[in-house]
Amino acid sequence: MVGLVEMCERQLGPPSILVNNAGVNANHDAVRMTEDEWDRFFAVDLKAAWLGSKHVLPHMLRAGRGTIVNVSSLHAFATLDGFFPYAAAKSGLVGLTRSLALDYGPHGIRVNVVAPGFVRTRLVQESIDRAEDKAAAERAMVAGVALGRIADPHEIARVVRFLASDEASYVTGASLLADGGLTARRAG
User: Which pLDDT tens digit goes with each residue over 110-151?
Assistant: First the structure.
């Protein structure tokens, strides 16, 4: 990570924006999951965001400004059976965001988190494609989404771009759900 940040600094100047958007799906039983599986999964879904932040923060501190946007998931706020440890890692990103916002806000550095719902990514499409009736699988997926559809990746990118921009200059420590209204429904 250090080498990547140094290369970017040489080619583009000191980093002023970091978007932490690494993640993999994982569904494990809490009893049967091994420590090695836990460590490998959290290395991508949570530790990578901390490491990315750790290595750009010194540059942002020197500049007296910067913004970090972590990409979490709606599973940080409302999840389903069988999403352990995914929901735990995505919730961890929310906590990481709040802590960094408090610690580095006085230095002009903003840190926020976006929590997308269903987005037409490779992983979501693979989930739909595994179903015998793909159209029915997609209808079931969006049945609870107020907007009635899966988001296009560009829609989430616009939210990230907003949070990274000066347009969001007074936003830090915030968790922004971009889930098409899925979590607006009453549970149960």
Answer: 999 999 999 999 888 988 999 999 999 999 999 999 999 999
Reply yes or no on whether 86 is catalytic: yes
Under the phi-then-psi rule, with left for phi > 0, alpha for psi from -120 to 50, and beta for the rest, what region is 164?
A: alpha
Residue 131, Cα to own-chain centre: how many angstroms? 26
- Quote the tokens at residue 124: 């979501």
Q: Is the pTM of this model over 0.85?
A: yes
Structure tokens at 152: 């296009």
Burial of 83 (C-beta count, 10 Å sphere; 0-12/13-18/19+): middle
Q: How many CA atoms, within 13 angstroms, populate the side-chain half-sphere of residue 148?
A: 0
Catalytic residue, chosen from 86, 94, 150, 163, is: 86
pLDDT (tens digit, 9 = 90+) per residue, 6-42? 888 888 888 999 999 988 877 788 999 999 999 999 9
